[in-house]
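User: Hi! Is it possible to get a structure for several chains at once, not just one? Here's what I have:
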Amino acid sequence: MSGKVAIVGGGAAGMAAALSALQAGAEVTLFEKGSALGGILNQCIHNGFGLSYFKEELTGPEFAERLADKVRDSAIDVRLDTAILSIGKDLSIAYESPKGSGTLRADAIVYTAGSLERSAGAIALPGDRPSGILTAGQAQLYLNHYGYLPGKKIFILGSGDIGLIMARRLTLEGAKVLGVAELCPYPNGLNRNIVQCLEDYDIPLYLSHTVTRAYGKGRLTAIELSEVGPDRNPIPGTGRRIECDTLVLSIGLLPLLSLLRPLGLRKNLAGQIEVDDSLMSSLPGLFMAGNALHVHDLVDNVALEAETAGREAARMALGERASGGKELLSKAGDGIGYLIPGRIRESGEEEVLFRFRVRVPNKDCFLVFSQGDKILKKIKKMSIIPSEMEFVKIPKKLLDFSQKTTIEVKLCH
Amino acid sequence: MPLRELVCIRCPRGCLLTVDEETLEVKGNFCPRGKDYGMKEVSAPERILTSTVAIKGASLPLCPVKTSAPIPKGKLFEGMKAIAEVSIAAPVAAGDVLVKDFLGIEGVDLVATRSFKKEGN
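Assistant: Yes, the chains can be modeled jointly so their relative placement is included. Here is the combined structure:
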């Protein structure tokens, strides 16, 4: 083992993973397709980042720069403007850049390629196909990097955090944001963003509503906003026409997994790459972290998660990974959207950190971790919402590795 | 006594605060920042303003900026107008003060939040 760790993607996850792999003794190469480190943080010019990771409130570019400075001052081999063409089962990475193409044979890989926004195609919006329909991240890129205001009268579909942040940003830059529609009966962004991005500017939030039609030849001229029922289907006859020139979509992010598809990695029921408690996928040596594994609400948590993946990848690459012992499976039970990790190793760390989200908002409930009839941990929750990720640590010594019973977390009343 | 319910926006935790509008007593906060937020939000609400200014000679035409401390909520649009007048040239380092005492508010500066090297033509 020569101890080579390759990092795929130079956003917050990739940089944090690279730094921790280096610290753990590996020889690290970081591939980034863009011409700067930092990924999506560079266009997130708002504040609110870093409170837990740097103990200081930072904007996105500042958070990125802190990590990028450390990477630049380290022995990490950073390859900017470099596209990954393929990842092999033997952990070889084929890449191409303006300087040429090549292959790097790694001893471990941390895959931190981030996520993609769901676009208009994902919601099969009926009506015309004019210009003026774009994702919140696209609007953010145009406005914050190039100074183009994408429209003057804007409607936003989806109450994800990026959509809320853009509602405020577009308003401050002089556009009129007419409203935000959310399919669910509750907002999907963080509470603080509802307050500081919508309420501060008197932007209406239409819960249990969706956009049912786009109108316009050439450019968008109006949308139809309809109420949805408990089944989340539009209620006929509730449609109303809203004149606008731009529709911004903030309807969710999906892990960017196209490069991994040929590897046939195991996935969980939510479609995420299944990992063990060291964040290693079903292909030995391939680790996952950040939004490529599961979509986070806070970059601070992305960086912490990636540190684990980087350290574990270095151990693997250096032949220092604890082995032996048995494995248990874990799964998301009633009321839980997904659970990471999906496998827990008897060896390795003494504690397992579970990450998950509930399906719908709940009050006065319990999170219950169990293995068969045995309750491992029961946590009282006054209030729990899907837009905030949950973290629970459980010591492995509480788990019974001698039987094959699956670990389960569920929401109980 | 008039009580006001607020969601704290100082961090993503989003504590639900109850503030007495007369005594400014804050309940429901997890940390001291919540107490400070609750008191200020009821008496004199303020926000950090983030935006961009034009930059010449950098890899992008815009440099992100922020106010170094929160400014009164009622002055956000005035702040945007003032920011639109600012134009800088690379190189710039994150943390560089671009406008001292922004909007005439003592101790609050407009600072760059990203570093840019000077690019060759």
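The interface with chain B takes residues 35-36, 42, 45-48, 51, 57-59, 61-62, 65, 144-147, 172-173, 190-192, 194-196, 200, 297-298, 388 of chain A (CB under 8 Å). Chain A has a mean pLDDT of 95.

User: Great, thank you!
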